[in-house]
Design brief:
6-stranded antiparallel β-sheet; TraC-like domain-containing protein; 2 domains; two-stranded antiparallel ribbon; single chain; transmembrane; alpha+beta; 8 strands; membrane
């Protein structure tokens, strides 16, 4: 017996023991003539019945009629009718002829072509696109989608011939400040906007980013590894603290909002070097204005993003989920033991990766 039929029967018996009923999801739309014989079954077996009748009639006219010949002539009709009356063990509206003969033959004889391609596939093309075979679609890479040509000299170049610098600015939590302090900060911000040179066009952006605790994790891991005098209880507490840092890193709700000042400037074919220098001077001016905006405890800091930091910022903006995953740690790193030489080589490799610059 077929394996699928046995599974269906076992499932039916199990549901019967549990007092459950398997309701059929498919609605049987066939019209029945008598018992389980539907009108569709009659039309399917009719050609075979006519063929058997012609054979029997021809034999009778030739004087060769015998009962054995009649049974043999009508045997195709009987086989087809039998296949039509054997239902599927689960889907009762399907006959043996459909799911065992017709469907299997269609699956075996089907002709399918599978395409692996970027962009619009051949199967999805319009008829006029197939006729215009000489017009090849140019595939776009990620730079064309983002509108960015390259990242260099601590700025990025757009496809509209524009150079852009990004300045990261620290923040002040106003929700916990006194009303007078808030008023003083708002007044300083108003002065900052009024003193900004008119020729400098800025855009203020606030972007949520996943918290990166990698340096914090590595610093405490080295500190705990160097604590050779720690007893078993202290080592368990240190290991638990590192695991707690790892769980915080993996939490998707653990994000921070960073503030940026974006400065852009158009350039022509021969003025790129000049515009680069002007953009650098404007970024320095904006940095000084931001750092001089507030004094004392609320003093702000500003830093121009380098090539690597610009790349990470764009990566976070277009693929936040993977940026979150890439900052996580592997728990399997805890029980691993390495020698001093391997540790020194891995540390040198990691420091080289941290100093990598995109040019």
């Amino acid at each position: 017996m077929n394996h699928s039929i046995v599974d269906a029967m076992n499932r039916k018996e199990k549901m019967k023991e549990e007092g459950k009923v398997d309701l059929p999801l498919a609605i049987d739309t066939k019209k029945y003539l008598i018992w389980k014989i539907a009108w569709r079954d009659v039309f399917i077996t009719l050609p075979f019945a006519i063929f058997g009748g012609l054979v029997v009639g021809t034999l009778y006219m030739l004087g060769e009629y015998k009962l054995d010949y009649a049974i043999l002539a009508f045997s195709p009709m009987c086989f087809v009718l039998t296949f039509l009356l054997i239902p599927h063990p689960v889907r009762k509206n399907l006959s043996f002829l459909e799911y065992r003969v017709i469907w299997k033959a269609q699956y075996k004889w089907r002709k399918k072509q599978f395409f692996y391609t970027k962009g619009e596939g051949k199967m999805a093309q319009k008829w006029w696109q197939k006729l215009m075979w000489w017009r090849k679609q140019k595939e776009q890479d990620i730079r064309e989608v983002l509108g960015i040509r390259n990242i260099y000299n601590d700025c990025y170049e757009t496809r509209e011939d524009t150079l852009v610098k990004v300045i990261e600015v620290s923040s002040v939590n106003l929700s916990l400040l006194h009303a007078e302090d808030k008023k003083r900060i708002y007044s300083s911000y108003e002065t900052f906007l009024n003193e900004k040179p008119r020729e400098i066009d800025i855009q203020i952006a606030r972007i949520s980013q996943p918290v990166n605790l990698k340096s914090y994790y590595n610093r405490y891991k080295e500190k705990f590894d160097g604590d050779v005098a720690a007893d078993h209880a202290k080592r368990c507490m240190q290991k638990g603290y590192l695991q707690h840092i790892e769980q915080i890193q993996k939490s998707k709700n653990m994000v921070t909002q960073k503030r940026y000042i974006v400065i852009s400037k158009k350039f022509s074919e021969g003025s790129k070097e000049k515009v680069l220098q002007e953009l650098k001077n404007q970024a320095d001016v904006m940095r000084q204005l931001v750092e001089n905006m507030l004094t004392g405890y609320y003093k702000l800091s500003a830093q121009t993003l380098n090539n690597d930091e610009l790349f990470r910022l764009m990566y976070t903006c277009i693929d936040y989920e993977n940026a979150q995953v890439n900052t996580s740690f592997q728990a399997s790193a805890f029980p691993m033991s390495i020698g001093e030489q391997t540790k020194r080589e891995e540390r040198e490799r990691w420091e080289a990766d941290m100093q990598y610059k995109i040019t």
